[in-house]
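During the no-cost extension, the postdoctoral fellow (Dr. R.K.) reprocessed legacy sequence entries with the updated structure-token encoder. One reprocessed record is reproduced below for audit purposes.
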Amino acid sequence: MKMTSIEENEMYMVRQAQSLRKTDPSSAKAWILTAKTLYPNAFNVQYEAYLLERDGKNSEKAANYFSIIATNFTNQHAELWQEVNALTSALRNETENTPEQEFYVKMYKHLTPEVQHSIFVHTISNCGDNLQQCIHSYILMFNKFPKTAATQAPRLLEMLAEGMKADPDVYQRMLVEEVLPMIQNKPPELNPVLACRLYTNSLEYYLRQIMDDEKCDTTEAWKNIFKVLMLCGQMMGWEPFLPFSKQVNQNVYWDKLVKILRGSPAGSSQVLFYATTLFIYSLHGYIRKLRIEDAEVSHVLVEGFIDWSPEGGEVQSMDWTPEGGEVQSMEPPKFSATTAISQELSEAFLHAARCWQLLNTEQFQRDFSQLMLALPLAPWISRFLFDLAIYFGHRDEANKLMADMTTQSTLVQSLQILSLNLMQGSMTLQGFQCILKILAELPATSGQLLENISLKSHRHMIFLPLTKIALIQYCTRAIISRLSRMLFEPNCSDRLLGDLLALLQLSSDKDVVLKQHIFNLITQRKSFNLHVLSNYIIATDIIEELAFIWNSQQQDDANFELTGSPTGSSGASGATNATAVATTQPRRIGTRGADKGARDEFKSLIRQQIARCNEHVPTLVANFITQEQLTLVQHIFGMAPPVETIVIK
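Re-encoded structure tokens follow.
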């Protein structure tokens, strides 16, 4: 289009000013003053006047010209929008601005509030498809004009929800860190579907922090999650839940949830989200406590043992579960206090379990399943469901779930398979092979013997710490539990009785009734040979009882033989001594026809074993299991599979 003579004159003056702006600002201003007098409503003239003041760093006068063009030419001219974008960009980064951006911040302060607000409104209107720019403009407007959030926040939240479809990380961060803090004091009314969606995204954001960032302050993260839950609840008019506090017992949260549940319709979204949050909170506490925070020691939920000896001291059989795939019991199992953290672990597990059961009822199951798919909880859920299955005695289900736990160590997997094996009531060859694998992978952390891994009369669970001594104790108890049943079989072998005595050294002050029963069986026999004394039996209570039996049977017709180390051997436990016994015929010391030489040799053998009483008994017992594994397998299963010998050091 051909310019008119007026437009030609206007542009001539603007070009003259432009040519002099850098070299002779005063002359450039003279041209612009003349142009403003002749053409006061021309955009090019007003814009060039603004540029002269901008380049001269005169923020107040630049603000005057910017107000004129921003008010009168809002829907025209790309040059104006370049300046608007530069201004809003500077406002977004006030703490890290360049000198040029600092000028825009100063100029903004000289604009009237009406012009400031109109800049944001027109910027939002002209963002087009640039969703991120539009959202940033909304956030800026809310920061500068907080009252606008009451009416404009729903639109901003819709945009954020839309942006999360393409880039969830970016828009979740903007939602949680920038937008929600601005509206928390006066939240707008929101569509329930959108509010629930925003809460789910906020929850996902914080859960990723908790799971992926080792430096994350989990207490602060949960405090924020509960704040967002309360905020979204306000948007939807829900009955308020309780704020987060580490000092609040989880029973208090559960009681509040039950109260809300009773007053809500079936399938209520309010109950769904409150219960889901409480479930994840309990689940996180459970998974976190499985690893003690101050030490690199994990815990694994395993089957406890039933103490077969009754209060009266009489020996009875101890079968307590069917041979099928499920443990049938009207009552859920108890948790035994084995370590200082056992109580906290069991409480966190039970809280998560009852939330899980509520959320998997017919009224919530479908929506809860969709929520679980949307949240990054797969590693926690697979471990929890496995533990839940063994807690309820669902062995077949637990076997299927084990395949989902791909990140765990072979040590943990072997321990869990052993526990499943014991759940059926009788350890199988697979369980024994797991024991050998566990003993081959013992951790460096020593630990200590546990209390209460065996209880009377009812099924129970224990949280087993992955320490060397605790693992040896659990494996030993599994073998004792299986072997001691054979005491009730006719003609149980001398070797079985001796092997049990070797294993029972690990619990010297326990199993008194069982040990006494073994000694009774020995004294009732006309002939008895104890093969394992010199290599593996060092417990003084057992040695003293054996010495008493040997001395008393010298007067009887019975023959009580102890197999000692050959002359010159050290008598120490371990692979070296075991090899010596295998290659040299050991000395057999019997009571029948014993002369003074035999009695002296017996006394020497007893002194030799008592001198070893300070050896590390757990290591000794672990070596006994691995070195005598063929004999143990023969006792338990009547077979000798090809298995490797492992030495515990």
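The chain has 29 helices and eight strands. The first helix runs from residue 5 to 20. The remaining legacy entries will be reprocessed before the final report is submitted.
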